[in-house]
Amino acid sequence: MRWLPRRRWVRLVLAVMAVLSVVLITKWRAAITRSRQIPFQPFRIAGNLYYVGNSDVTSFLLTGPAGHVLVDGGYAETAPLIVQSIGKLGFKITDVKVLLNSHAHFDHAGGLKELQDASGAQLWISEGDAQAIASGGAHDPSATFISRYPAPRIDHRFRDGTTVRLGPLELTAHVTAGHTRGCTSWSFPVRDGDRELQAVSICSLSLLPGMSFVEPEKYPGIRADFERSFQTLRSLPADIFLGAHANFFDLHRKLRERAGPGDPAAPFIDRAGYLDFIDQAEKKFRQKLAAQQRTGAPAP
């Protein structure tokens, strides 16, 4: 067998890399398109808690007499749809006084600037994700050229355990890092008739491609962050299970279940599903960590 000249080998490798890049970008864009299956009808989850996100990427509205709190801004392109959803429920975007975020990725932080401009709300961001969000994703280690977004103005930076208050509304930040450095899960009480339900919206426990939990770690301390996040989330009292993506808490199944008679909030009161989600995420983490410890390199 004759060996190809070095120059031809280089050209062949470059050609293969170009084809692979096109395929990967095509799949990435297709995934983004699927996650923007909109419009999506907003609805009340329980009491003063409403869903105003799209079919995959979530946004939650918590209403109160002193103004409202909006958790997560979706994509840059879907910010107007969040505004429309808030209006469909009979509320005004200008009554949103606080904007919160789960993490710095473009599908959750992309719409923050437009929502901030439309509402005049104060934006609270964790210290771990503040640099990434202030740069519109440019300083996010997992960012790519197609995952940048308009940079919002950060009004407040917070640490783990901070409680954000607006009138009687209280939302507590739990920095459950790993997916990003400042990934924040939010817990808050929801008044539903004569009962008070504790809601928890999980940021994310998903493992991104290229995440290394052995030396060199994706970022220093990422393994310890994931370990701490599993422990933190299990310790929280969670009646209503929410998350940054609809599939985390089986949104579409629960919507079908609530169409029948009975308490419409019942499908979302799901402590068992909440704990199972954490268990499954930790199982995947343990498997990937074990694979990396065997090979000394990031597992695919």
What can you tell me about this protein's structure?
The chain has a seven-stranded mixed sheet with strand order 1-2-3-4-5-6-7. The model has no long low-confidence stretch (mean pLDDT 89). It folds into two domains: 1-35; 40-295, Ribonuclease Z/Hydroxyacylglutathione hydrolase-like (Metallo-beta-lactamase, Chain A), CATH 3.60.15.10. It starts with 5 loop residues before the first helix and ends in a 5-residue tail after the last helix. With 300 residues, it is an alpha/beta fold. 36% of the residues lie in helices and 20% in strands. Helix 2 (79-88) crosses helix 4 (112-119) and helix 6 packs antiparallel against helix 8 (271-295).
Short description:
This protein is α/β, with parallel strands linked by helices. It has helices at 6-35, 79-88, 106-109, 112-119, 127-134, 222-235, 251-258, 271-295; strands spanning 43-46, 49-51, 60-62, 68-71, 96-100, 122-126, 156-158, 163-166, 169-175, 184-192, 195-202, 240-243.
